[in-house]
Amino acid sequence: MSTLTFRAATAADIPALITLVTSAYRGDASRAGWTTEADMLDGARIDAQGLQADLARPRSTILLAERDGKLLACAHVADDHGKGYFGMFSVDPAQQGGGIGKQVMEAAEAHAAREWGVPVMQMTVIDIRDELIAFYERRGYQRTGIKKPFPYGDERFGVPKRDDLRFEILEKPLATHA
Predict the structure, then answer these.
(1) For 91, how many CA atoms within 13 A lie in the half-sphere containing its CB?
(2) Which of 21, 70, 133, 144 is the most buried (most CB within 10 A)?
(3) Which of 154, 147, 156 is nearest to 128 (CA)?
(4) What is d(CA 38, CA 28) in angstroms, rounded to the nearest whole number?
């Protein structure tokens, strides 16, 4: 099996990104993997306009992980007011559990430290996603206890199936290289 290659996404990658991210989080296809949000949320996970904004934003990269030219995973990495932001983390459901996600996280953390010198990486996770939070904790992230309300009524984040959703910020110190 060949190794993963990483590159920054371009506007030409938007359709493939929408397919990948949707397959990892929404609908029946997402149930093949363990990252599904299908029991909590319906609707879109991302859209072309939001992806284009992430691509155009300064100090922001959508990192793609490919093997033999096939898109397998992605993550959005950015400098968010002096702290790294890690989001839109998606692995093809058929490829989950094989170590690709760990490699993507490591590449994203290294990118943020190298490109922007940020001291920490942060992410927001729906706080009832215990299995997902445990995955991040095994990779050095810690719960901060800082909660943010879920944006009910803003369908860019999906259509909630429950009324108890909220985000928690997780954080990990990064090794920066001067």
Answers:
(1) 19
(2) 21
(3) 147
(4) 7
The model carries a pTM of: 0.87
What are the φ/ψ torsions at residue 75 (nearest 5 degrees)? -160, 145
- SS3 state of residue 18: helix
81 confidence band (pLDDT: 50, 70, 90): very high
Which residues on adjacent β-strands are paired with residue 97? none
Residue range 59-68, pLDDT digits in tens? 999 999 999 9
**Residue for token digits 């991040």?**
136
What residues contact 70, with CB distance under 8 A and at least 6 apart?
Answer: none
Helix (H) / strand (E) containing 7: strand 5-8
Q: Which two tokens stand for residue 30?
A: 């997402």
The alpha helices in the chain, defined as continuous H runs, are: 14-25, 27-30, 48-56, 100-116, 130-138
Which residue reads 């490109």 in tokens?
A: 115
